[in-house]
Amino acid sequence: MKNLIIYAHPSKDSFNGAIKNKIEKTLKGKGHDIKVRNLYDMMFNSVLSQEDLQLFFQGEYPADIQEEHNYISWADHLYFVYPTWWYSMPALLKGYVDRVFSTGFAFRYTENGPEGLLGGRKALVFQTASDPLEALVARDMISAMNITIGNGILQYCDLEVLEHKIFPAVHHVSTEAREQYLQEVEEIVLNTCKRA
């Protein structure tokens, strides 16, 4: 199984970094292939330009976008790891989606509406949040965040979403709770390996 981890946190030492490391370690332990795209380390250009759009509609892509297309095309499973900022993904990851999940590659327009082009691949999302679960539920943010990336991006491109796990209150929970979170990550990844 070929796995692509798309990591969007400025610190490798964050809890997001621990999640990424747990995914890598678990997949390596099962002998699976892994590639990581650390968007901050890459200093990925997240600004969708007019030139980009013009190329997209001609069926062409800038070299940096084509490189990411190659990674996604290679992968069977995509793992997204990111924090919640303003109840959404970091701007860098949103810009990555804007540029890389481009028309003609990730989806196309048809007379009957959009058609996803990334079918056959599966996606897992690991998202952290500072708010406790009760606050997220009270604001109806869990469903909003699930819909935004799950329906609005991944399923739109015909990716099958296997898991969207939100870990709440990461700045406030105990070390033991964080260890339990990481155990959940491992279990989710192992279950995914069994289903591959």
What strand line-up does the widest sheet have? Answer: 2-1-3-6-7
Structural class computed from helices and strand pairing? alpha/beta
Instruction: Give the class-level CATH name.
Output: Alpha Beta
Give unreliable regions as ranges: none
Euclidean distance between termini CA atoms: 7 Å
Task: Describe the fold and architecture.
The protein is α/β, with parallel strands linked by helices and 196 residues long. It has one domain (2-195): Flavodoxin domain (Rossmann fold). It is built from eight helices and seven strands. The strands form two sheets. It has a five-stranded parallel beta sheet with strand order 2-1-3-6-7, with helices on both faces. Strands 4-5 form a two-stranded antiparallel sheet. Helix 1 runs parallel beside helix 8.
Topology:
Blueprint: E1 2-7, H1 15-29, E2 33-38, H2 39-42, H3 50-56, H4 63-74, E3 77-83, H5 91-100, E4 107-110, E5 113-116, E6 122-128, H6 133-138, H7 141-154, E7 160-167, H8 175-195
Parallel strand pairs: 1-2, 1-3, 3-6, 6-7
Antiparallel strand pairs: 4-5
